[in-house]
Write a structure and sequence with these properties.
Blueprint: E1 2-7, H1 12-23, E2 27-34, E3 47-51, H2 60-65, E4 71-74, H3 85-103, E5 111-115, H4 133-151, E6 157-162, E7 165-167, H5 180-196, E8 201-203, H6 204-216, H7 221-228, E9 233-235, E10 242-246, H8 247-253
Helix pairs in contact: 1-6, 3-4
Length: about 260
C-alpha cells in the first residue's frame, strides 16, 4: 500500500488525480499540500489536507508528517496569462525543484511525477518570440529535476509528463476558477480538437490514470523500459531513472 503526496488538487489536472487516488486500491494514504481546504478530500478517510503556504520551503516538521511517502504527483501550475514571467518561473520551476529536493529525503527511490506540457522543449531558441515562455521554463524545470537523480542521496526517480489539451469535459472536478483566456477559448477549441484531432487531447480521467501509474511504478530502469517504453515514451540516459512521456505516450498507456 502506498502513501502519495499531491499538489494542485483544486485545479483541472490535480482534481482528477485526487479522484483517481481516492478510488485506487493500492493507495492507502494521500497527503495533499494546499493553501486552502480541498472540498473533494472532505470526509475521505485516506486523504489528509496539510495547509501549506510556501511551496519553496519544506521545514523538518512538515517532512516528518510526510515520512513514508514514496511519490509526489506535482500538478500545481498556472497559465502564463494569469501571472507575470517572474512569478510564472517561481511557480513552474522553483516550487517543484524545491519540493523534489526535500521529498527525496523522506524515502528511498522516491518518484517525483511532474506535469509539464505539450510543446515544451529543453533546447529553446535564443529568440524569445520563437520559444514561448511556458515551453522554455517548463523545459528548464524538466532538466533541473533530472539533474537531481544523481545529486540526491535517495536515488530520486523523475517522470516528466507532457499532456496536450487537458480536457475535463467528462470529469469536471476542478474547484479553481478558470482564467479568462480559458473561458473564452475552451468552448471553441475543445469541440474542434475532440472531433478533428483527438490525439491532441488529454482527457483528465485517463491522464490521471497514467500519472498515478508513474507514481506507483517501482521497477528499475530496464523494467520500466519494458513496461512503459514505446512510442511517445523515452527512458532518459544517465544515472538513475528518468522518464519522459509525450502526449502520444500518455494516450497509449491509457489505451485511448
Amino acid at each position: 500500500m502506498s502513501h502519495i503526496i499531491l499538489t494542485g488538487t483544486t485545479g483541472t489536472c490535480g482534481a482528477a488525480v485526487l479522484a483517481h487516488c481516492l478510488s485506487h486500491p493500492s493507495i492507502s494514504q494521500i497527503s495533499i499540500l494546499s493553501r486552502k481546504p480541498v472540498r473533494q478530500a472532505e470526509g475521505q478517510s485516506k486523504a489528509r489536507v496539510i495547509l501549506h503556504q510556501d511551496f519553496a520551503s519544506y521545514p523538518d516538521s512538515l517532512l516528518q508528517e510526510l515520512k513514508g511517502a514514496t511519490a509526489c504527483i506535482w500538478s500545481l501550475g498556472v497559465s502564463t496569462s494569469e501571472v507575470k514571467a517572474a512569478e510564472y518561473k517561481t511557480i513552474t520551476h522553483t516550487y517543484p525543484l524545491a519540493a523534489a529536493k526535500a521529498f527525496s529525503t523522506i524515502s528511498q527511490n522516491f518518484n517525483f511525477v511532474y506535469v509539464s506540457g505539450g510543446g515544451v522543449t529543453r533546447n529553446p531558441s535564443p529568440l524569445p518570440l520563437i520559444t514561448p515562455l511556458f515551453s522554455r521554463i517548463k523545459g528548464q524545470a524538466e532538466t533541473a529535476l533530472l539533474s537531481l537523480r544523481t545529486s540526491s542521496s535517495s536515488s530520486l526517480r523523475v517522470f516528466n509528463l507532457r499532456p496536450a489539451f487537458i480536457d475535463e469535459i467528462q470529469q469536471p472536478l476542478s474547484e479553481k476558477p478558470k482564467p479568462t483566456a480559458y473561458k473564452l477559448t475552451n468552448p471553441v477549441i475543445g469541440p474542434v480538437l475532440r472531433s478533428l484531432w483527438p490525439a491532441g487531447v488529454s482527457p483528465t480521467r485517463e491522464l490521471a490514470e497514467v500519472l498515478v501509474k508513474c507514481a506507483l511504478e517501482r521497477g528499475e530502469k530496464e523494467e520500466v523500459r519494458q513496461t512503459m517504453g514505446g512510442k511517445g515514451v523515452v527512458v532518459e540516459e544517465g544515472e538513475g531513472l528518468g522518464v519522459l512521456l509525450e502526449n502520444v505516450g500518455i494516450r497509449r498507456l491509457a489505451e485511448i
